[in-house]
Amino acid sequence: MLKAFPFMALAVVVLLGCSSVGQVGIMTGPQGDPGALLKQTQAYTEVGPTQGQACRYFLLGIIPWGDSTPNAAMEKALAASGGDAIINASVETSLYGFLPIYNVFSFTCTTVKGIAIKFEPS
Prior knowledge:
Layout: H1 5-14, E1 15-28, H2 34-39, E2 44-59, E3 63-66, H3 70-81, E4 85-98, E5 105-119
């Protein structure tokens, strides 16, 4: 056990990360109108649980690529499920760094989870 401690300590220093989670309630795609949903009742069918993840990467702390916005994660979740919106949605954002002291490579990912719904025609 004591022989493994230096390796575990090194692993912690090499790979550090943090994450935060928040509840959103409802997320709609571009075809959905959240204002209209609140003003009038619209029938929908539950498609089922869905999840989407979007990541943004950083090389040397200055060269970014990717899109880690909640909207990008939501679009991936809706594309996977075929739904129009997500209810009981939660958004989790995580940040990971490899060799964080030197900021060689890091990435942040946003994960959207919830229940996909499909709106019924009016």
